[in-house]
């Protein structure tokens, strides 16, 4: 922002060319703000620091469903040809406990505390089984599962079992009819389905369902093709929906017999102001609030149906309270194919449970009044996060108490490209703590399940099950790294000198999730820090040396510095994108180099090199005029007092302008380089330029391009005028082609003479 205001101020003084440049730069700035939605740390697949354990079997394909046992020691998996139970009680490996081979399992739920309900497509003849969870192979009966079990293996479905009754939303039958139904109803209770006339759903894709016991309702989340409600909806506009059915529903007596009397639906809108609507729900999870159920939140990942970028997604949270308000409000009544009218819901009956026992006239209204007028908007009317770089497709969410007792929401987002992003939601902006590469290839089938008690995420895919610990605090080697991570799971324990998992039993851990303020948290750091030992690198004259610098964080700013803390200039050095420094060894470049990273106001030396010539130098015969300016410079450097290491490490008093000098020094400006190194604040003008570091290269490139274009344009105009004149003169003065050039030449010369 500071950069932007400086730019603005400068541009106001300059002409229209600058204005244009400014516009180009602002677009660049927005891009760079987006770039701040970068994961701080990235772990590639196979990284030992962030180890994953996997279960993979060549006979188990397309894992469709994951189900955790209540003690989180067993993971049940529904796959293409089997149901598996995996032992996940050991932290390092996953082993197969039991396997039942059957059909393509699409639904896998706990039937009761001891048994599982599984159903599969069975080649278009859906079958279900109820099997003991601890012995999947035991004898059992398969029963036909008409109207309950998915007919095909490709479409998404959702199921919830409450008191042994199965609520499913799936496709059934050969024509792929979509239903929301209750099966396995107990005693005298009816199995229920959606009414068929009018059509209550329009080409739905079911995403998720959840039992809200405080309301006696099942909430269902899905997308469908939008209703044409008179206004400008495009015919194929997708809308995301939340719908309800009541568990006490038993269908009407005469009207709506064996049909839901409690089905209503609302639109879910993931949009901020008038900005792009993320209208396609991809996944949604529930974060319950047992103290006040209305504060239960549903976190959904959405993508836009139409967008300029191929990877764009957003996360929105909706509250149960807001959903209840929509369901108890006004409705639209469906009159015929395309016509809807307003229904005020004056008695507030619609959206309530218990209607199945009501009069025929009420049920006749219920029959055609199922869409709420009010849509459900996200909490705070804003997106929790949005990305134009990542296509998030699945998520898990956890509320975690940080070291200071404050609670934070952490999202685990699976990207289409195969990464898991761990994001903490902060008031200022979401912070992506880390990304972990899970797959190298995009997967067809994906599933994400979180065990908060075990602190692990399980990811099911076409290939197998992968376990990822929610945190791995020990990857942060010191207090500064631990605090800079801003991971609510991790804090620095100064007693044992380790970055450890935050838990109730270990209070007083050093952590600052909001600001990552190292100097405040890591007091002991100041006294004991010695920085890394300096590595000596002996090199021959004219040898090209490459000094590597690996900074774990991708949010820090890395600079190379001399021992006097001044910045290593752009010339004759090559600063690479991977932060390494490349240069040719000369008398002048023999020096000490420190790679310094700065993040959230904290500066630390990552690595330090002393580049030296061999003991018997042959170098004095070398022509010394090659870099005369720098020769002077380096002699000056050696004259300077070295700054004590502790000061360097915690040097926060140095003006920020000074350290960014590099950006404004170029090979054509070596005199200034030297000045900048020894007197970084030598003029106010420099200070202004300096704070715009990262755009300098672009500006130079842009200006060069602009000048080239201008030259081309001028050249074109000159040539064009020239040729016009030739065309004019040729026929009159000289019909002979061969002489035209001469004539034009002469004319031009004639014209130019008076000017010169
Ligand atoms: C769970 O359901 C199965 C199948 O109906 C039944 O045999 C078993 O006794 C039930 N278990 C409990 C604890 O109710
Ligand atoms: C199952 O996996 C195979 C590859 O392992 C894939 O070709 C197929 O499309 C998958 N089926 C479904 C329904 O995802
Ligand atoms: C249905 O209504 C009748 C009276 O109209 C009442 O006696 C009965 O208890 C009600 N049943 C339920 C399940 O609410």
UniProtKB/TrEMBL annotation:
PROSITE patterns given in the database record: IG_LIKE, SEMA
GO molecular function list: chemorepellent activity; semaphorin receptor binding
Disordered: annotated segments: 620-641, 728-756
Primary subcellular site in the record, as a coarse category: membrane
Residue span(s) of domain Sema: 40-470
InterPro entries per record: Ig-like_dom, Ig-like_dom_sf, Ig-like_fold, Plexin_repeat, PSI, Semap_dom, Semap_dom_sf, Semaphorin
Superkingdom of source: Eukaryota
Composition bias type Basic and acidic residues, residue spans: 623-641, 730-739
Transcription as UniProt keyword: no
Gene3D superfamilies documented for this protein: Immunoglobulins, ligand-binding face of the semaphorins, domain 2, YVTN repeat-like/Quinoprotein amine dehydrogenase
Subcellular locations according to the entry: Membrane
Keyword list, A-Z: Disulfide bond, Glycoprotein, Membrane, Transmembrane, Transmembrane helix
Membrane-traversing stretches: 699-720
One GO BP annotation of this record: positive regulation of cell migration
Pfam families assigned: PSI (PF01437), Sema (PF01403)
Gene Ontology CC, one term: plasma membrane
Residues annotated as domain Ig-like: 532-608
Family statement drawn from the similarity comment of this UniProt entry: Belongs to the semaphorin family.
UniProt-recorded name of the protein: Semaphorin-4A Semaphorin-B
Record organism: Triplophysa tibetana
